[in-house]
Design goal:
The protein is of the alpha+beta class. Helix content is 25%, strand content 40%. It is built from five helices and seven strands. It has a seven-stranded antiparallel sheet, sandwiched between helices. Strand 5 and strand 6 form a beta hairpin. The longest helix has 18 residues, at 90-107. The two termini are 24 Å apart. 33% of the residues are buried. The model has no long low-confidence stretch (mean pLDDT 91).
Amino acid sequence: MTSDPAPPTMPTSRLAEGGWERTDVSTETIFSLPTVQVQTATAQYADAVTADALAEARGEPFDGMLRFFAGSRLDFDPPLPPGVTPAAVGSMLRNEARRTFKKRLRERGLVDIERDGSQRLRVGDRRRARVTKFAARIPLSGDRDLPLACWVAPWTTSDDAVVVTGGHPQATLADCFGLDTDDSRLTRSPSAYREEFFSLLRTVE
């Protein structure tokens, strides 16, 4: 049996400067191919600064996802045969990554999860990844909800594979929660959230 994989190299300094906190580091077997199990090591982060600002403005914490960012490194047990690289099973890995991501979103209480396009993006050490977007929402009290853009970006290297996931609001938090505030953390635009996610994504290796 191979040793447990380590999470990919994450932009820890940038995350800390941006108010993100690491919430978990975990290792698990996420799915099996015909002759091999796929193990993953994941580092997960949450936007603590924005969550704190929302809790202060509302006078109560919000028990749900606002923004998340995670990186996983995938490894194979037993190792792939000599001469066989992860790229040989790349298509299957990408499909499984998207399927697993959608399942995890549902388990976290998101509803109306629908695939909403994809694009290719240069990431890491001059590699390219297919970044897939899922639109989803978190029901709020009354008739409001919090729409989210959720992203999954898997790619292969010569030795293993990496999957980066993330999610952010698709509307300003002040509007979604009916808050009268000029706090920039709560009036941030969806495009600003998106730009930060893609900027962080490009630095994961």
